[in-house]
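We store chain and fold; example below:
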Amino acid sequence: MIFYAFFLFIIAERLSELLIAKKNERWLKEKGAKEFGQGHYKYIVLVHVLFLLSFWLEAMLQGAKLSPLWPIILSGFFITQLLRVWTILSLGRFWNTKILVLPKAKVVAKGPYRWLRHPNYTVVAFEFVLIPLLFQAYWTAIIFSLLNIIVLSIRISVEEQALCTMTNYNSEFHKRNRFFPLRPIK
């Protein structure tokens, strides 16, 4: 029963995010936003759908048993959800699952963006580990974490290039160290 409730929560969260993204996409495109990365977006969607299917299948085949470390893992999961909400609220109408860039817009540098360049991708990376580990789906955690690294390495590169070309991203973020953003690059 716990597994089903957790899985339904994940599905409901993803569907609500897609609704938010679609609404934001319409607004951004009405304002003149340009879309980038259409070629790789389908692979990101595929990885996320297969992740959920793999998690379901692996957990069910093992009896959907909670990990003995479930209090720690679940706490980590809830922290990532708080970061997700903070990220979405910080970006407001600019938050999306696609790369949509409004020309000449000022990039958001508040909220978690003060410390991380890509907090939403950080959340996803943690989720690809925490969600499967909660129900001992180790293969899903390993395989999809690796696949996520591959798709994000492409996506982040495309996104940063688009932002540098069309916004103040370069002046706002590239003078900061990638992993220690409060420390300037020398």
